[in-house]
Task: structure prediction
Amino acid sequence: MVTPHKPIDQEAYRERLEQLRVEHLRRIDSGAIAEDDDPDATEGPRVTHDAGDLSIYELADSERLADADRATLELRNIDQALGRLRRGEYGRCIDCAEDMPAARLTLVPTATRCITCQEMYDERHMSGAHHSRL
Result:
């Protein structure tokens, strides 16, 4: 038997998701701005012939791109969560259709599955190698 959960405060979750959205947009923008505003970020590799300097610039670029990719993915998840809120589907597991506890949504506001379904999903799709924290 499933224990009923206290109804979630949808407005509070909407505000939290909007706040996260702004933070991720800033992360994406700050990476692009930092690259545009820092002449060393773009000019350095062209000016230097030192392999060590070049590898540091390449590593910094790689880290900046990876961070932007993570922020973009999270932004997509946030937008999908906001869509679920608008449709009245937020907080409901996409697999078992049960309501998720508020504690789960507080920890992972973009969660689409309850913990039990997420663990089963991870086992099926991750071959036990890496488990998602969603």
The chain has two domains: 9-90, 92-134. Residues 41-45 have pLDDT under 50 and may be disordered. The radius of gyration is 20 Å.
